[in-house]
Amino acid sequence: MDDGTARGGETVPGTTGxxxxxxxxxxxxxxxxxxxxxxxxxxHQRVEPEQGCANDRRLGPYATRAEAENxxxxxxxxxxxxxxxxxxxxxxxxxx
Length: 96
Known about the structure:
By secondary structure, the protein is an alpha+beta fold.
């Protein structure tokens, strides 16, 4: 058998012969194309599909991956708004 024919389990010269970047890219593309729901994992600080960490360790569900990527910013904005509402309620009637 000639070298580099990739028959019978041989590898093509110049390749690693193992799982390479192509498989990684394919898996990322497949994940990105998956339908939701999506979650933001608090442990790993990344977006996960439904088959991820336990729900008590993540935020969501979100309909899209983009929404899940924005989960921390959205939570921060909501917390700031609620804190402002609480402060306004606490200050109500202080002008008397």
